Each structure stands twice: as C-alpha cells, then as structure tokens.
Amino acid sequence: MKNLTTLLMICLGYLGYAQSKLDNYIRIGLTTNEVIKQHNFDINKSVYALKEARSLFYPTVSLNANYTKAEGGRTIDIPIGDLLNPVYNTLNQITNSNAFPALQNQSVLINPDNFYDAKIHTIMPLLNFEIIYNKRIKKQQNSLQKIELEIYKRELVKEIKIAYYKYLQSIEGVKIYQDALKLVKENQRVNQSLFKNDKINRTAVLRSDNEVIRIEANLETAKQVSNNAKSYFNFLLNQKLDTEIEVDSENELLPNVMVNENTQNREELTQLGLVKVLNGNVSKLTQSYWFPKLSGFADLGFQDFDFEVNKQSRYYFAGLGLEWNIFSANKNKYRLRQVEEDTKKISSQIDNVKQQLLLQFQVSQNNLKSALEQFNADKNQKASAKKYNEDITKLYKEGQAIYIELLDAQNQWVNAQLNTNISLCNSWIAFAELERANATFNLK
C-alpha cells in the first residue's frame, strides 16, 4: 500500500495533462449529445409554460361580434290596440275628429331580426389563488427540468469517460497482440530454420504455426472490439461512428482514490427536495378551492337593428363576478388527503435515497481501491513476466530450453500485459463511477 501511495503521488502530477483530451471530448459531448438537446427542449417548454401561467394575471381582451336574422318562433304579444283604442275613440268623439287613429295589437319576435352586436369584451382576475399557486408550480417544474438535465449530464460524463477508457484499453490490446504476433512469427521462423537443420522435430514447427494462427485470430477480434468501442464513443458525442479518436500519450496514470464524501450535494436529493416543496404548493392549490374568486369584466360596443350606428347604438356594460364554492361532496377534501400521502411518500423517498447514495459512494470507493491494488499487482507481474520471457528466450536460442518453456513464458508475458491493461482501465472506470457517485465533476 505504501508503494501504491508513492506511485499515486507521482502520477497525480501528470493528471491535468493526461485528462486534457478527454475533458475536451466531454465538453463536445455536453454540447452535441442528442438527449441533452431533448432535455433542453423540455426546459424551453417549461419556460413557456411558466410564461403562460404569468399571463393569467393580466386581462383578457377579445372582440366579439354577432349578427342575427330571424323569422318565426316565439313571440311576445303586446295588446296595444285593446288598451288604447277605447281611449282613442273617446278622444275622437270629444274632439269631434279622427286625430287618434285605431292601433293594431303587436306581436314581437323574441329572436331579434336583422340585429347586430359588436363589442370589446375585457375580463380580468382580481382575486384568484389558483393562478397564484399555479404560477409557483410551473416555476418549480422548470427548476425540476433543469435538475434532470444536470443529472443526465453527470451520467453522460461518466459514460463518455468509461467509453474513452475502454477504447484506450482496446487499442492497447491491439498493440499487445501485434507485438505478440511478431514474437510468434519470429518463433515460427526460428523453428523452421532449426527443423531444416535437424535441430528440433516437426512438432515444434506445427505448434509455432498454430500459435501464429491463434494470435492472428485474437488480433482480429481485438481490432473489432476496438472498432465497436470507437463507434460507441462517437455515438455518445453525436459524431460519425468512424471518426478518429485522439488519445493521450500517457496511458499509465492512476486516478486519485482520496475523495471526500459529498453525496449530500447530489442533484437527486435536490430534486426530491424540490418535489416536496412543489407538492406543498399543490396542496395549497387544492385548498384554494375554498377561497372565493373575484373577477371584473367590461363590454364596450355597438348594437342596433339594420346596421344602424349612432349615439343610441353605443353602449358599455361592466361589473364584478364572484364565485365561491360552498359544496362539492368532499371532493377537494379527498384530493387534499391524496396530496398529503404524496408528501409522506416523498419524505420517505428522501431518507431512502440518502442511504442509497451513501452506499453507492462507499461501494464505488472500495471498488476503486481494489482496482488500484489489482493494477499494482498486475504491473509487478508484468515486469516479472517480461524478465522471465527474456531469460527463457535467451536460453531457447542457446538450446538450453525446450519450445514448450518458451511458449509458456511468452503466453505469460502476453497475458500479463493484457491483465495490466485491463486493470488500468478498470481503475479509471472505477474512478469515473466514484466521481459520479460523489457528484464531484465540475459541469460548468
């Protein structure tokens, strides 16, 4: 562990340089990723919803006009003749004239005929708690959308890092198999030469031929794995899948295992806290059912028959409207009880998520420590395997070792390189997961 700490301190000095290209790719991913764009669309939508909620405080003005043409239907009968004709007859007799003619009873249509009404209708809420709490809810929903975006960004950063490390692992694996292929081909050449000179039997030649075929197959598999890793990394960045990836020259740097616990600042907890506040406003919105609603209205326009427009046609009509619900068979009471249960559920979720996030941090930190220990062990094994392979190769060329010993030494050397490469990648992956669990990556 002491050696690991020393190595760690040395490697940290190069950390900023080693991560420069990866940080650049992360910035590209945070800008071009399609899912982030979709989240931004949702945020824009919630902003417009908030503006819509604010607009409810302002008056609504509309132009209303109608024209009616009617014939038949219900009427109002006015007995003008029956009422006035006896009086008119008496007046004619007194005045000895026909100055007061007889009148006919009138029948007036209820539906107005050839009548128009054009007006500017204005209505404005004066007291309405529903739109007050609705605006608060929309504002908090907008904040929730932003937090969800932050959460996805952290996940994306982790995925980009893991994809990058796996790509580094794959290209290093290709290099290892390419070097191994050179070794086995050299063995093949040496064995064929020794066989021609009757130094060894044909079995060693056949075995060396098979080793060449096996390494070539492994090399081809490694290349396809590398191509898949490249495609997935470019997919996360919304680039063409075959875009070349720049890699850092220093690949054997180790992450920092010394991380202080920071799970209380995770966006997930902030999100749940905001949901709890939002649910409180939903409760107040439900309670506002019992409060009165007061609004004002005003009409300014013209109405007349036969499209006449004059002083008598003009009119205005204004007033106040009051709505106060006094009975709903406990409908809103039961709605309020549902909201209260949701609040209890959210409080329970917050406590549970706190424990989950703390567990995630501790497991991730332990995994990183274990990965670093494994890398340190694999690196030492790699150095031993290299020395062992060099010694056996020298002895084999001097005729003091058999081919099986040489083959075993070379396989140990190749496997040690592969294991070291894998454990290094696993260390960085474990660090990326720890960084995600602790929300320490700076997204700004």
From TrEMBL:
Taxon lineage: Bacteria, Pseudomonadati, Bacteroidota, Flavobacteriia, Flavobacteriales
Protein origin, superkingdom: Bacteria
Parts of the chain that traverse the membrane: none
Pfam families: OEP (PF02321)
Entry's localization field: Cell outer membrane
InterPro entries: OMP_efflux, TolC-like
Keywords, sorted A to Z: Cell outer membrane, Membrane, Transmembrane, Transmembrane beta strand, Transport
Name of the molecule in the record: TolC family protein
Similarity field: Belongs to the outer membrane factor (OMF) (TC 1.B.17) family.
GO molecular function, one term: porin activity
Species of provenance: Flavobacterium sufflavum
GO terms for cellular component: cell outer membrane; efflux pump complex
Membrane keyword on record: yes
